[in-house]
Design brief:
Elements: E1 6-10, E2 31-32, E3 35-36, H1 37-47, E4 52-57, H2 62-67, H3 72-80, H4 86-89, E5 99-102, H5 109-114, H6 117-120, E6 125-128, E7 132-135, H7 140-151, E8 154-157, E9 159-160, E10 170-178, E11 181-189, E12 200-201, E13 205-208, H8 211-217, H9 229-234, E14 242-245, E15 250-253, H10 257-269, H11 275-284
Helix pairs in contact: 10-11
The chain binds uridine 5'-triphosphate (UTP).
Uridine 5'-triphosphate binds at residues 10-18, 27, 56, 103, 106-109, 111-112, 129-131, 255.
């Protein structure tokens, strides 16, 4: 079984649900307390043993590149003032990393992942949607990689949602269950109300075999007129092992305004430094 060494972060979306905040700032740079969403996702990847970070970006996303680069002026000024660089030094990646590829037009998540095909090459890889913040210990991807080492093939997240929510997500048609692992027998993107095969949605974490890139190459547009990753993954079922993994932790959909605020509140009250002040403020509301 090949190890999962590479991770693709599609960050070329327009973030229209979060306007006006995302007019000039990438959605992935919005902060949960004091850290941009993208950094949470990269840290989750590194914890899972990922060695190569691949960002699929688009125009207007240069703040993401700067975030993982050296900031000479900031570092020099902070050093001269005797301030600790701990919070910014840790972000810097090794020379030559991350790798950035461009998705020229936002044609959909499947198309964004396919844009990374040359860098991914012929090995299994992870995909992270960084606007979904996963809070758990160990992190979601570490838990998924451990599960992958047991079953191989493709492993995607599988989280329960209310029946009324299934038309918003990619949904799993479940087979046999074994603890946190569920065999996947089919996948459907945004099923019409009342037609979902289960209430297990696919969150933004995936471990996929490279064959999915070949399928994406000729994938037609699906739900919403976009090239859907779900449709391409569905074609792997039956040819390769395919499992859903239920995360032991909490998911926050930070591409949605309510989810974003909930994540900020939850992480703020959990912090030793600002938690007490935030808690007592909330009590006054
Ligand atoms: P979303 O469905 O959240 O789309 O994409 P979006 O454009 O970011 O946001 P809204 O819906 O307009 O508010 C899920 C993930 O896939 C990436 C996004 O950047 C996000 O991480 N994506 C989506 C791309 O990289 N390219 C695309 O063409 C579409």
């Amino acid at each position: 079984m090949k190890p999962i060494r590479k991770a693709v972060f599609p960050v070329a979306g327009l973030g229209t649900r979060f306007l006006p905040a995302t007019k000039a700032i990438p959605k992935e740079m919005l902060t949960i307390v004091d850290k941009p969403l993208i950094q949470y996702a990269v840290e989750e990847a590194l914890e899972a043993g990922i060695e190569q970070i691949i960002f699929v970006t688009g125009r207007g996303k240069s703040a993401l590149e700067d975030h993982f680069d050296v900031s000479y002026e900031l570092e020099a000024t902070m050093k001269a003032r005797g301030k600790s660089l701990a919070l910014i030094e840790g972000i810097r990646q090794k020379p030559g990393s991350p790798v950035y590829v461009r998705q020229q037009e936002p044609l959909g998540l499947g198309h964004a992942v396919w844009c990374a095909r040359e860098i991914v090459g012929d090995e299994p890889f992870a995909v992270f949607l960084p606007d979904e913040l996963m809070v758990g210990s160990p992190g979601f991807m570490k838990q998924m990689v451990d599960a992958y080492h047991k079953v191989g093939g493709n492993v995607i997240g599988a989280l329960e949602v209310a029946d009324s929510e299934t038309d918003k997500y990619g949904i799993i048609s479940p087979g046999a269950r074994d603890g946190r692992l569920t065999e996947v027998t089919a996948l459907v993107e945004k099923p019409a109300r009342g037609s979902a095969p289960s209430n297990l949605m696919i969150p933004g974490r995936y471990i996929l075999q490279p064959e999915v890139m070949r399928i994406l190459e000729t994938q037609e547009k699906g739900a919403g007129g976009e090239i859907q990753l779900t449709d391409a993954m569905a074609q792997l079922i039956g040819n390769q092992p395919f499992h859903g993994f239920t995360f032991d932790g909490q998911r926050y959909d930070c591409g949605d305004k309510a989810g974003f605020v909930q994540a900020n509140v939850a992480l703020a009250v959990a912090r030793a430094d600002i938690g007490p002040a935030v808690r007592s403020f909330i009590a006054t509301l």
